[in-house]
Design a protein that fits this description.
The structure holds 2 protein chains of 2 kinds. Chain A is α+β, with helices and mostly antiparallel strands. Chain A has 3 domains: about 110 residues, Ubiquitin-like (UB roll) (Roll); about 120 residues, Orthogonal Bundle (Fumarate Reductase Iron-sulfur Protein, Chain B, domain 2), CATH 1.10.1060; about 70 residues, no CATH class. Chain A has 15 helices and 7 strands. Chain A is globular and about 75 Å long. The chains are: A alpha+beta, B alpha/beta.
Chain lengths: ~325, ~290
């Protein structure tokens, strides 16, 4: 028995969670309340400034910025060029979410801020240099040590299916702003979604030199991606960044530089051997003796029966063991 | 109402209390669960990245086990849920992949034809039990309990699975908390990431990210957090000592598994729901609601 309700999407209707729903929330002549984050390096800190902007039909965030710049704050700094979702220069944060100003419908009340995780030059203008720098370090190009096989090259849809998704990237950096790991600054060496997508354009091209791709991947810190899909959610080009770019790049890293993928390989080996993940075994395999260093945590976990050393060390079989061993093979030794 | 029930690895080890609570609550709700004992791990995030074929095969096998039982599949872990949903989608979209997997499954006389309905426990409450019936089953309204719902990523993103333009618009947990008598609070961490998936090799990301979420829940007045995912629970609860050390302050934030919150409202005791297995003490909740 199933009731007539889709629990997976609760909130979408009442919170106007679609472009068409948002376009019905305002009528021509309504006033939009806009709060803009302004920053003038000469004047010091950042501050919010409020504006009332008259709504026009199909109005976009960019139209609001243009109206403000033309009518009230002629010194407003913001960037845009094509106005049609191609140039990737107009990304901002609207109500806490990364959007392309030229493509996003306005909301009745809007807080507009510059992208995160990049230095702000002035108002909504961010400095793209840290991204450019990171990307340059990844050497995002194609190298072909073998001789050119002649035209046409034998390439199939299957060969290019992931690279072609990455090639949809307009480098707007919305994902770079949304990434929580990038938000932690220098805590990890994670390159971030935008540089990885740019790298994926050539690293996922089968014509690229594997040794060169391996060198690039070593500089990405790619296994620090937490798989939260924030990048996919904000991507205006609808690139499945996690599943079609980051995961295929991880697969390449695991094949070309196995030491980068110790954690993933350990999990696979444990599942192949036991059918299920034994958390104690995973920690030991990945962290080695380091896992035993935090004695107080081990005691706490033991006290609540959250780890079971007998299971871990006796490698007790589960009813899932046979199937996993058959379908994954015996699993590699680390 | 019968379900093939897939608890996943976490609810069979670190979060065994979740499995126990789910069975107790299911009995109260009239859900008959057939636990899939021979089901393997869905591969977490690791297998799908480094061995996609192995990943699809293990997940489709789980769907095939449910199909053989003639039952819809019920999950209780966000990451497992997204994994089986993704594997189902790949199976339906790519007939070559589907054929290859079925050849492997035939070795143990299993076959998948793409018919298994996949449902997380949270969705089962809405779609199969129904909110009105659930409301009628509440014998101990959790009045006075302020709850911070922590969704976790894989039950509300990616957009191509769940259809949210902005995953913060998901309100399933808050609406449910209200039905149970709680007062859901708003805070910045609701649909943010706990960082679990990189924690096995580097806990610092999980500790830093989740510290912000718990702090926000706390400063917005939550007496407890609740999550539909045991992986999030592991970071929120089992890592809380390390998080406190990192922040340099006490948090003392109890974290309930979703079935535990439901179970409390249905009159089950904290012993029955195994609240004693949590790292952060839950006595404050029990005394608040008289459980």
């Amino acid at each position: 028995m199933s009731l007539d309700i889709d629990a997976r999407r609760l909130g979408q209707a009442e919170r106007h969670d679609s472009l068409s729903a948002r376009n019905t929330r305002l009528a021509v002549g309504d006033m939009i309340s806009v709060r803009l984050r302004r920053f003038d390096p000469a004047a010091g800190g950042a501050a919010f400034q409020d504006f009332q902007v008259p709504y026009r039909k199909w109005m976009r965030v960019l139209d609001v910025l243009n109206w403000i710049a033309e009518n009230v704050a002629t010194d407003l700094a913001y960037r845009w060029f094509c106005g049609s979702k191609m140039c990737g220069t107009c990304a901002v944060r609207m109500n806490g979410r990364e959007v392309l100003a030229c493509w996003e419908a306005v909301e009745p009340t809007m807080t507009i801020e510059p992208l995160r995780n990049l230095p702000v030059i002035r108002d909504l203008l961010v400095d793209r240099a840290p991204f450019d720098q990171k990307l340059a370090e990844l050497e995002p190009w194609l190298e072909r040590p073998a001789s050119y096989p002649g035209f046409p090259e034998p390439l199939s849809h299957k060969d290019m299916k992931n690279a072609s998704k990455a090639l949809d990237c307009i480098a707007c950096l919305a994902c770079y702003s949304a990434c929580p790991v990038i938000g932690l600054g220098d805590l990890t060496d994670f390159a971030g979604p935008a540089p990885l997508v740019q790298l994926g354009q050539t690293a996922l091209d089968p014509r690229n030199d594997a040794a060169k791709v391996a060198r690039s991947l070593e500089r990405t810190g790619i296994f620090n991606c937490v798989s939260c899909y924030k990048c996919e959610e904000v991507c205006p080009a609808s690139i499945p960044i996690v599943t079609r770019v980051i995961e295929p790049l991880k697969a390449k890293a695991a094949a070309l530089r196995p030491a980068m993928a110790t954690h993933s390989r350990a999990l696979r080996a444990i599942v192949a051997m036991r059918g299920r993940v034994d958390p104690g075994a995973l920690m030991l395999r990945v962290q080695g003796l380091r896992a035993l260093a935090n004695l107080s945590r081990i005691m706490r976990l033991l006290l609540r029966s959250k780890i079971d050393p007998i299971k871990t060390f006796l490698k007790r079989k589960t009813p899932a063991t046979g199937a996993a061993a058959r379908l994954l093979g015996r699993g590699e030794r680390l | 109402m019968k379900f093939a029930y897939y608890p996943g690895c976490s609810a069979r080890s670190t979060c065994a209390e979740l499995n126990e609570a789910t069975h107790r609550v299911a009995a109260k709700l009239g859900l008959e669960l057939t636990q899939l004992e021979s089901a393997t791990c869905t591969g977490a995030r690791e297998l799908r990245a480094i061995d996609p074929v192995g990943f699809y095969t293990l997940n489709v096998r789980i769907l095939a086990l449910a199909e053989r039982a003639g039952l819809p599949l019920m999950t209780i872990c966000n990451t497992c849920t997204l994994n089986v949903l993704d594997a189902h989608a790949a199976f339906v979209e790519d007939e070559h992949l589907a054929d290859d997997i079925n050849v492997r499954l035939a070795e143990e006389e299993l076959h998948y034809s793409g018919r298994t309905r996949i449902s997380h426990f949270l969705w089962v409450l809405y779609e199969n039990i129904g909110i009105e019936r659930l409301r009628a089953l509440v014998t101990r309204p959790l009045t006075g309990l302020t709850v911070a719902a922590f969704y976790g990523c894989h039950i509300t993103r990616p957009p191509q699975r769940y259809g949210f333009v902005d995953s913060r618009n998901n309100v399933a947990l808050e609406k449910l908390a209200e039905v149970l008598g709680c007062r859901p609070i708003d805070y910045s961490g609701r649909t943010e990431c706990c960082g679990f998936h990189t924690a096995a090799h580097d806990e610092r990301v999980a500790i830093k990210l989740t510290g912000q979420h718990i702090k926000s829940a706390r400063s917005n007045g939550a007496a407890t957090m609740v999550t539909p995912c045991p992986l999030c629970h592991t970071v929120l609860d089992s890592f809380q000592k390390e998080i406190e050390r990192d922040l340099g302050e006490n948090l003392d934030m109890p974290v309930l598994h979703l079935p535990q919150l439901v179970g409390l409202a249905l009159g089950l005791t904290s012993e029955e729901l195994r609240l004693d297995r949590h790292m952060v003490k839950t006595q404050a909740i029990a005394s608040l609601i008289g459980a």
